[in-house]
Amino acid sequence: MKQHYAVIGAGWAGCAAAMELARAGHAVTVFEAARILGGRARRVERESTVLDNGQHILLGAYTETLRLIKLAGQDPSELILTLPLQMRYPAGSGGMDFIAPRLPAPLHLAWALLRAKGLQGADKLALMRFSTAMRTMGWQLYNDCTVSELLQRFDQTDRLNRLMWYPLCLAALNTPPERASARVLLNVLRDSLGASRRRASDMLIPKANLSALFPEAAARYLAQHGGTVRTGAKVAALQALPDGRWRLDDGVDDGEHYDGVIVATSSVQAASLLQGVHDARLDDAIAKMQAFTSEAISTCYLQYAAPVRLDLPLYALVDAPQRQHWGQFVFDRGQLDSNQAGLLAVVISASGPAAEQGHAPLAQAIAAQLAQVLQRPDLAQPVWTQLITEKRATFACTPDLARPGNASGVPGLLLAGDYTANADRTQDYPATIEAAVRSGVAAARVVTTGKMAK
User: Fold this and answer.
1) How far apart are CA 439 and CA 17, in angstroms?
2) Which terminus of the chain is more exposed, N or C, with fewer CB under 10 A?
3) Angstrom distances, CA of residue 272 to CA of 88, 278, 287
4) Contact assessment for residue 369 and residue 327, using Cβ atoms and an 8 Å cutoff
5) What is the spatial distance between Cα 376 and Cα 373, in angstroms, rounded to a whole number?
6) pLDDT of residue 169
7) What sign for the dihedral angle of Cα 123, 129, 132, 136?
8) 451: pLDDT confidence band, cut at 50, 70 and 90?
9) Cα 82 vs. chain centroid, distance in angstroms?
10) What confidence score (pLDDT) does residue 453 get?
């Protein structure tokens, strides 16, 4: 039977949930407080240039994200640059050069390790031991610990930790290794490094802005299937009706009632909405969300003259805060979009200490870092800089973190977001786009069937 559902929030989780509901033949209304779709992965405009609120890397293992991008009528090959798995530092910067060839898995990783530059024999042996042990364990860790503890347990070298594992942990979990969940990191590694398909380990860099990549296409898909997206519509309260349906207060009393509601906002906003329902069955989910701590991500955009170009579209950087080297990755946006020639994007994960430096000093420090490690003095003087910090970009992904599931505890009221737990905890992901999309799809299936998605 066709029913009418409300989705609160048009981030990637909300758009995924709405598309899945529409695909099943239901009527859907999406409420988004902002004017731009995408939530914490959206486009912004600065200095008359369209940027993203943060530079992202996806993975070939982002199966649900890629499925829905295609379902929304987009061609990923046109909108995303695909690179083989790599960790490439600028020559002479004290880093390494690791790039996987296009061979079948897991031969591509073995060959990359054999040919890697900047790693000593002890580093390569340690990496091989770790990979072999994790495959034997099925990439599963039933007793969680920190990433640092896991690496120490398997005798990973200091150099390998600094150049490979720590950057991967920060990029994937946005949580420092000494506080990050080893189990969740292994879940990511299992679906990428440990996958049977080589493409699962590919690195995917959006060429289009994040709103255009999926959320805006999802809105078009909804319109084609009779759905509606209301922007500038902030839902202030939810009301459970005696007949099991729901009423939403968004400042417009249209008399519409909904058979189910998916709350796809941030965990902070979701907890606030659930508190207003005044139902004790929601207490557990609310308590878990309120216990989260936030981690920031900063992206510093630096505009240079149009001819400025890096040798590669992506470099890893050795971050050394004691030397004011805050950048962890640098992207050449001009190699992704010809309209952004000369624009570099430098990412800082878990960026709280860096952001405390202030915009101008941090941007100046990053420009100086690029000039030094890339041996390009011209990079010390950008035409303009723009620092974008998402203070609540993700939750701190710590060991054994208690996370609510999609089911809130009240029938017809579901949660969707990158913070929700999977029914099988060995499948939990960190706060990534793929986690948000998977959660949205799962919530849509739960609200329509009452059963957890597998």
Assistant:
1) 8
2) N
3) 43, 11, 11
4) yes
5) 8
6) 96
7) negative
8) low
9) 17
10) 44
Question: Hunting for tokens 């940027």 — which residue is that?
Answer: 51
Task: Return the pLDDT at 424.
Answer: 65
**Tokens 């992506």 identify what position?**
314
Q: Which neighbouring-strand residues pair with 347? A: 299, 329
What residue type is assigned to position 376 of the chain? R
**CA dist., res. 416 & res. 265, Å (int):** 8
Tens-digit pLDDT profile for residues 199-222: 999 999 999 999 999 999 999 999
Q: What does the alpha-carbon distance between residue 156 and residue 185 come to, in Å, rounded to a whole number?
A: 15
Here the tokens at position 191 are 């679906």
Tell me the pTM.
0.95
Q: Residue 9 is which amino acid?
A: G
Instruction: Spell out the SS3 assignment of the chain.
Output: CCCEEEEECCEHHHHHHHHHHHHCCCEEEEEECCCCCECCCCEEEECCEEEECCCCCEECCCHHHHHHHHHCCCCHHHHEEEECCEEECCCCCCCCEEECCCCCCCHHHHHHHHHCECCCHHHHHHHHHHHHHHHHCCCCCCCCCEHHHHHHHCCCCHHHHHHHHHHHHHHHHCCCCCCCEHHHHHHHHHHCCCCCCHHHHCEEEECCCHHHHCHHHHHHHHHHCCCEEEECCCCCEEEECCCCCEEEECCCCCCCCECEEEECCCHHHHHHHHHCCCCHHHHHHHHHHHCCCEEEEEEEEEECCCCCCCCCCEEECCCEHHHCECCCEEEEHHHCCHHHCCEEEEEEECCHHHHCCCHHHHHHHHHHHHHHHCCCHHHHCCCEEEEEEEEEEEECCCCCCCCCCCECCCCCEEECCCCCCCCCHHHCCCCCHHHHHHHHHHHHHHHHHCCCCC
Q: Extract the tokens encoding 16.
A: 């995924």
